[in-house]
Design a protein that fits this description.
Pfam families: Acetyltransf_3. With about 180 residues, this protein is of the alpha+beta class. It is built from five helices and eight strands; from the N terminus they run ββααβββαβαββα.
Length: about 180
Amino acid sequence: MQKIETHRLILRNFSEADSQGLLEYLGNPRVSCFLDERTSTLEEAALKVQKRSKDDSYVAVCLKDSDYLIGELFYLKEEPDTYSIGWNFNAQFEGLGYANESVKAFLKYLFMQLGARRLYSYVEDDNYRSQKLCDRLGMRKEGYFIEFISFTKYEDGTPKYENTFQYALLKKEWLKKQSS
């Protein structure tokens, strides 16, 4: 992926120097969908960084002044032109507008560089920050799935199913918003 610079951030491929930053937000995932990504050691983080560095569908979000990793954006392409998108950020950098700033640039990249026609994102019903972010980005709430997916289990071993919203945005909707 080509490096993208915003006012305060750099979006780029992962590099070896990102292991500590990745460990900080994957060491204790706050959202259930990232529980299977939990990372306990710097060595585990380095292996994940190495894998992500070879995969353009993972985008490192770094502070412009220090190039320090504070989160990631990612996509999964569904042929021919639909992309499922998501993000995960270090809690220490919440509330500063970094997610909004980086995802706006990510949407532009997906629509204008990769030719996306439609983007969508799944957000658990208790993940209020991501819901607000989707709203700010102009994504529309398309659905609400009851007991949609399980990422964890109750103490008795039975699966705990998550209620999940689906948000989406079409390129033509995004373009209209850009021109207004």
